[in-house]
Structure formats: C-alpha cells, structure tokens
Design a protein that fits this description.
Elements: H1 6-12, E1 15-16, E2 22-23, H2 31-37, H3 41-69, E3 77-80, E4 86-87, E5 93-94, H4 100-103, E6 107-110, H5 130-137, H6 152-156, E7 166-169, E8 175-178, E9 182-186, E10 192-196, H7 214-221
Antiparallel strand pairs: 1-2, 3-6, 4-5, 7-8, 8-9, 9-10
C-alpha cells in the first residue's frame, strides 16, 4: 500500500453511509482491521467461495432446464458478472477500487454457431461490448452511437489480434485503462498507478513514479475519456 497515491488508498477504502454519501476518509477500523483482529480471514474466503459454488449450481439448473426445453440448439447464452471482489489483497475488501481484482468479471458466450467451443480468450473486452455482439450474432441491423463494439471476430477466433484497450470508470474522473499487458490508473486528483501484468499479475508494485515508464503512461493516457459527466444523486 505504501506505493499507492493518497487518493487511491482512500478510494479503495470507500464506504457508504446510510445517507448515500461517499466517505473517502481512511478508516483504521474498517473491513481489513475487523477481519484480521478477529482472525476471520480464512472464514471470509471460505464463505465467499461457498457463494460462488452455490451460484454455479443455480447456473447449472438453468442450463439443464434449457436442454430439456428443446431450444438449446437455437439459443445464445451469455454469462457475466458486474464486478470483482477483493478478499484482503492490498488490505482491501469488497469492490470500490480500480484494480484488476475489483474490475475483472466473468464473461462467457455460448452459441450454436459463430462461437469457438471451449476456448479461452485473453484479449481485454468490456461488458458494454455484449449488446453490439448480440446484435451481430443475431444478424440484426447495426446501431449507431454505441460505445461498445462487437466481439464476434474474437468469438470466432480467440487468438485474433485486438488492439483496443478497456476503459473502466469508478466515480467522477477516476479511470483505469487495461491492455493485455498493462493497467494504468489515473485519479481525479492526478494520482497514478501503473502495473505490468506480464511481470506483476497481482499488481503489487506501482510503476507510475519510475521515469522509464513515462512513455508507457503517455501511450495509455490517450485512451482516457475526454469528458466526464457529473454524478447524479
């Protein structure tokens, strides 16, 4: 945590009070302190894994029902989650951060045609790409003005070249840019983080303050949004 910018540490420890206002103050008695003081880390991870196992079982029930329905050969299936979940990494719990663990989600496509079977794709994509992908897979007219783009070419060939990074936003003017190798984070107060996933997949070492990585930051910063809308209460 020592190599993180101040705003990054605050954002990661964000909590919500009953009024809905965000409190960016660092809480010494927050989640991580409670878990460690009461020796609950192992049990917390165990409970989280149990919820995943339960969710997997329910997905299986849905798929079994689809098979029995007779429509499995004419149905596109998409499975995704809304966010990741920290279990103590960087002394952080829950979501509320722009790191890989918080923002990586499952995204699985299955279709009778046009989707490679049992293949894993390493290219970075976004959940906003689901809608244009379904339009493409269903052969429907394309729509203008969508921020996402169709993943059909990747579904057909997961090894296909893909140069577009993913942009993740959390709160006003706090963004992360993710390529297949790099994650660059910039907070609204100017704080920065940079991680090399090839050498540091767990994001333990922030490279943003090292001059040799300035060209890499400049390259990734070009993908940051040029406009930021105000939050609506």
């Amino acid at each position: 945590m020592d190599d993180l910018p101040a705003f990054g540490r605050k954002l990661a420890r964000e909590v919500y009070d009953p009024s809905g206002e965000r409190n960016f103050a660092v809480k010494p008695d927050g989640d991580h302190a409670n878990v460690t003081v009461h020796n609950q880390w192992r049990k917390a991870v165990q409970a989280y894994l149990a919820t995943i196992s339960f969710a997997d079982a329910q997905i299986g029930r849905v798929l079994d029902a689809l098979d029995r329905s007779g429509h499995a050969d004419n149905t596109i299936i998409v499975l995704w989650g809304d966010h990741g979940w920290h279990l103590g990494e960087k002394e952080h719990w829950r979501k509320h951060a722009l790191w890989d663990v918080s923002t990586r989600t499952p995204l699985i496509f299955s279709a009778p045609q046009g989707v490679a079977k049992d293949k894993l794709c390493q290219r970075p994509v976004s959940l906003i790409d689901i809608y244009p992908t379904l339009i493409d897979l269903c052969g429907l007219p394309k729509r203008r003005g969508l921020d996402g783009q169709s993943l059909k070419s990747l579904l057909e060939n997961p090894e296909r070249k893909w140069d577009r990074p993913v942009v993740i936003t959390y709160g006003l003017n706090n963004h992360a840019v993710q390529t297949e190798r790099w994650r660059y984070i910039r907070y609204r107060d100017g704080g920065q983080e940079l991680y090399d996933h090839e050498r540091d997949p767990n994001e333990w070492t922030n490279l943003a303050s090292i001059p040799n990585y300035s060209p890499q930051k400049t390259k990734l910063a070009k993908w940051l949004p040029s406009t930021n809308g105000e939050l609506k209460k």
